[in-house]
Amino acid sequence: MSRSIEGEAIAQLFTRARTPSAWSSTPIEMATLKQLYELAKLGPTSANCQPMRLAFVTTSAAKEQLLLALSRGNVKKAASAPAIAIVAQDRNYLDRLPELYPVGYDARSWFNTSPDAVAGHGERNTMLQAAYLIMAARALGIDCGPMSGFDRDAINKIFFPDQSWDAKLLIGLGFAAEPVREPRKPRLRVEDACRFI
What we know:
Number of helices: 8
CATH architecture: 3-Layer(aba) Sandwich
Number of domains: 1
CATH class: Alpha Beta
Strand order of the largest sheet: 1-2-4-3
Shape: globular
């Protein structure tokens, strides 16, 4: 029995989905943003460590502060997005591991062999969760525009001054003002990107 999802679902998630450069003014409801997280959190992470934390920037005042920390090329498209998710990594994510991975012993020892190991595991799993967030948004009919051009220290100072959160990625969320008409940029061929060993 096939467990593959239908072609229309694949199109919405992958083949038809595009990154908009201009957004409509249609807002995203708070309930939808909460639903977005509820879906994204279900994706697997190492020992269920779940290091991703999110700040959804939706107000004009917060967005004005955010725009100050963006690279020039991202300001225009971020300014019109109904919401921008700041994807952050909780530097202290292992503190929650006994709660999230209750196996009768302390699984933190798997990760905390060194500060670099803690940071590396956290960053890999945060970015993995960011990908789940994008796919969850697409599943809900929300367009996404990921951005990595920003001043991380400035974002942390503005939005997380008293928290252990560290910004890793921004994702514009909303609805495209118009369909993306330019051809999709090239992707690597399977022969160039994959080895079958």
